[in-house]
Amino acid sequence: MKMNCKFSKRSKAFRDGLKFLIDAEDFEKIKNESFCLTLKGYVYSGKNKLLHRMIMNAPDGMDVDHINGDKLDNRKSNLRICTRQENLMNVAKKKNNTSGFKGVCFDKQSQKFKAQIRIDGKQKFLGLFEKAEDAHEAYKKAAVKLHGEFHHF
Q: Would you say 81 and 58 are in contact if contact means Cβ atoms under 8 Å apart?
């Protein structure tokens, strides 16, 4: 069972009417905490503890990934402990993306859409395509193969 939880009454998130999700079974862990949002949109307590790390009891040196990308959804079914590299695989397209697709940009020199993917900290070239949609399909195939369960398109 899930619970909608409110932020601290003095927080901007409360004034904006935002709520965050947790499993009902985790309420006891957090009931005495007061929560706000970080600048990056994560829920944290007044004691500077990130909610998703508290819920998963994450060990030092490991990340906690929000599977669906929603930082307000802190149910265990949406969280997984992972490495930093795995966590970075599950990020959305950047806000400054102009192609509309993750892993795709327009290559001015060739006048085509370039597909690329990051693996082991390095960009891997996937090809040049006439259409952005075709480049995105190449990215999606590579993401499933190289990022496995952490792929995100």
A: yes
DSSP per residue, 95-127: TT-SSSSTTEEEETTTTEEEEEEEETTEEEEEE
Q: Dump pLDDT digits (tens) for 24-73.
A: 999 998 888 889 999 999 999 977 799 999 999 999 999 999 999 999 99
Instruction: Specify the pLDDT at position 113.
Output: 97
Domains of the chain plus CATH, in order, are 2-82 (no CATH), 93-150 (3.30.730.10)
Judge contact between 144 and 151, C-beta under 8 A. Answer: yes
* Separation of alpha carbons 152 and 92, rounded Å: 7
Residue pair 43/52 in contact (Cβ under 8 Å)? The answer is yes
Q: How many CB atoms lie within 10 A of CB 42?
A: 18
* Tokens coding 96: 């400054």
